[in-house]
Amino acid sequence: MQPATQAWWFAAGRLLGTVVLGLGIGWMFSSPWAGLACALIIHLAWQLVNLFRLEWWLRHRSYADAPDAGGVWGEIIAQIVRLHRRSASTSSASFSSSVSCSARPPRFRTV
Predict the structure, then answer these.
(1) How far is 79 from 12, CA to CA, in rounded Å?
(2) Where are the domains of the chain?
(3) 105: which DSSP letter?
(4) Measured between alpha carbons, how far is 7 from 70 in angstroms, rounded to an integer?
């Protein structure tokens, strides 16, 4: 199984665990739906924190390090870093080839 697929299965398991835990805690206090709602609100808040961290890093990528996140968020960040490195190396390679071509003196053929 690929790491990205594993991350999605882990995220699904974490969500299922949140649902079970919320229902269980709510059941202990005789209100399973309120427990489920609280657990899902906490889960949603954590996802929003990760989304905020990703968005902040994308805006400040030139001087900030990538956020350290696990699971699906970590896979998304790793893909963005790979794409950024690939585009930076491609643009620097094309820039260096254009500079080296223009910096070379013309060759004259001798007859």
Answers:
(1) 20
(2) 3-103
(3) P
(4) 8
